[in-house]
Amino acid sequence: MRPLLLFSLLILGAIIALLTALLFGSVPLSPTELWSVITGEEQGITGNIILELRLPRALAAFAVGGLLALAGAQMQVLLGNPLADPYILGISGGAAIGALLAMLFGAAALGINSSALAGALLSTLLVFGLAHGRGAWSPTRLLLTGVVVAAGWGALISFLLATAPHQNLPGMLFWLMGDLVHADQALPGLLLLAFGLLITLPRARSLNLLARGEQQATVLGVEVKPLRLQLYLTASLMTAAAVTLGGSIGFVGLVVPHMLRLLVGSDHRLLLPAVVLGGGTLLLLADTLARTLLAPQQLPVGVLTAMLGVPLFLYLLQRSYR
Amino acid sequence: MALLDVTDLVCRVGERTLWQGLHLEIAPGQCWGILGSNGSGKTTLLHTLAGMPSPTTSGEVKLMGSSLTTLSRRAIARQLGLLLQDSHDAFPESVWENVLSGRHPHLGRWQQETERDHAQGRHALGLMDLAGLESRQVASLSGGERRRLAIATLLTQDPTILLLDEPLNHLDLRHQQGLLQLLHQLCRKDGKAVVMVLHDPNQALRYCDHVLLLRGNGSWDAGRSEELLTTERLTELYGCAITEIEQNSRRLFVPD
Predict the structure, then answer these.
(1) What is the C-alpha to C-alpha distance for residues A227 and A272, in angstroms, rounded to an integer?
(2) Fewer beta carbons below 10 Å: N end or C end of chain A?
(3) Which residue of B has its CA nearest to A257?
(4) Tens digit of each residue's pLDDT (9 = 90 or more) over A114-171
């Protein structure tokens, strides 16, 4: 597809998703009501719902989706494996341990978020230190270390769930499934998203080469070691931020880069901005569905991304191995 | 001045010394063939010449007077290109994206390819008989087409020194001849230098003005092809009897 057309469609999709998110919820609003809020005529309860509840959450959902998709695209190149996702190296597991512990100790939202962030960063450093160690730093070693650390976190999560008091369980499970209920701060996520894109875009051509393997990239003038380090750190930081905001929301980071590779090809100069738009839009739509399907009850958004993501991904897999 | 200046290069793998005390001077216009049995360190040598030394090698390689270790990969890639023995593709990519990536070292961070870069890519695809395949996925190409694409990408990179690791792999006879003639011309007319790993002494004799024989036991020979390529040396190098026949006043080596 032509890049200009594709980006117009992606931006249009994002705007439509945003408007949908603002209109629908436990109290559906009409487009005229939305318009009067946008123009500033209406400042009553409808204005409050839109500006203080729905808009921050919609923007946060977009930021989280964009962060996950961007981190996923980078992680796939870093590990040289198109089936990698942002959580593969155990970052979400570390964040989950942090969040669940904070919940057990009765912390409020801020405490849970900072604890999750601390867990994610700790896990990032742990995997990096173990994979770096002595000797060569190869994607295989990084992958194996990350997968094993992630398995360790998984066991700890099960332990916490098995021993936690019953009244804490629903909150903990919701967090694990990915949940944007507490995502009322969009600005940090959006800023980090812009920062991540700004840092990765000038290296997009190098990513194209690294995707072809370390030696080919080196031969064509890429300093592979610093590039890998930068990829690892930015992808980890973005994943940590996304997980802190929305819990471990699955499949966005895996499926979105794949879908867009089918549409724009593998040139990361187009792919990276495209996955940000695509990931943000997908999660925004999923979150709107999560809020409205069983309203007033809210579903964890991770359930919806997985429900959309599993069949989509299996379909893509069938296609690529045909 | 020599394009590549190699001093006192040593390669040790475990207890074995593959080559030691290796000295080479590669000048513009020269075409070198590296011959040796499997495992004699031909690929390792090419990688070392490209500044990608393995832990098993030591010594110094200078590119136009500066040691490779002091140069950035980008600076190296603008002067020196290496055709790897194998290419692998984990991610989908089109032929055009692949060939255009040869311009990477010549472009700044935010720079896009210009019409000139595109022209170079098209020219290289034409030379490698791949014109018209631009939009094909690399994964859908045949083995020989992939090999020619890798060479086209190297030609698009347009380095002064071309290192090629078994460039003829997967190529049919016509494309083998075509490539060898093209490389020969690049040396003669454009003043490039070519160093390639070959397995056929006849091709080395015909298209390379210099050869390097690696015996895999530490010893090596470098010099003009017509002097160095003899039945005795080749018999010893490959460990099988090789005789020489003459046809249309051309020397040909055949296994006995």
Answers:
(1) 16
(2) C
(3) B91
(4) 998 999 999 989 988 888 766 667 788 888 899 999 999 999 999 999 998 888 888 8
Question: Using CA atoms, how far apart are residues A285 and A190, in angstroms rounded to an integer?
Answer: 17
Please tell me the predicted confidence (pLDDT) of residue A322.
Answer: 47
In the prediction, which pLDDT does A133 show?
65
Determine what percent of chain B is predicted with pLDDT higher than 90: 87
Cα B256 → chain centroid: 28
* Chain B residues in contact with A77 (beta carbon < 8 A): 91
- Which chain A residue's Cα is nearest to B139? A320
- What does the pLDDT read at residue B208? 96
Point out which residues pair with B7 in neighbouring strands: B60
Question: CA geometry: angle at A145 spanning B84 and A180, to 5°?
Answer: 110
In whole angstroms, give the CA distance from residue A78 to residue A127.
14
For residue B89, give how far its alpha carbon lies from the nearest alpha carbon of chain A (Å): 6
Q: Which two tokens stand for residue A291?
A: 């809020």
Q: Is the pLDDT score of B18 beyond 80?
A: yes
Chain B positions in Cβ-Cβ contact with residue A220 (cut-off 8 Å)? 77, 101-102, 104-105, 157
Alpha helix ranges (H) inside chain B: 42-49, 73-79, 95-100, 115-127, 143-157, 173-190, 201-207, 225-228, 231-238
Tally the residues of chain B. 256
Question: Are B97 and A208 spatial neighbours (Cβ–Cβ below 8 Å)?
Answer: yes
* Interstrand relation of B16-26 and B161-164 (parallel, antiparallel or unpaired): unpaired
Q: Is residue A278 pLDDT above 90, yes or no?
A: yes
The overall average pLDDT reported for chain B is 94
Coil vs helix vs strand at B31 = strand
Model confidence, pTM: 0.91
Closest chain B residue to A261 measured between Cα atoms?
B92
Q: How far is B26 from chain A (nearest CA, A)?
A: 19
Q: Which of B91, B102, B110 sits opposite A220 (nearest CB)?
A: B102
What number is the ipTM of this complex? 0.93
Contact A267 B77 (CB under 8 A): no
Tell me which DSSP letter residue A53 carries: I
The residue among A222, B164, A212, B48 whose CA lies nearest residue B148 is B164
Closest CA to A250 of A113, A86, A90, A122: A86
Residue A316 confidence class, pLDDT cut points 50, 70, 90: low
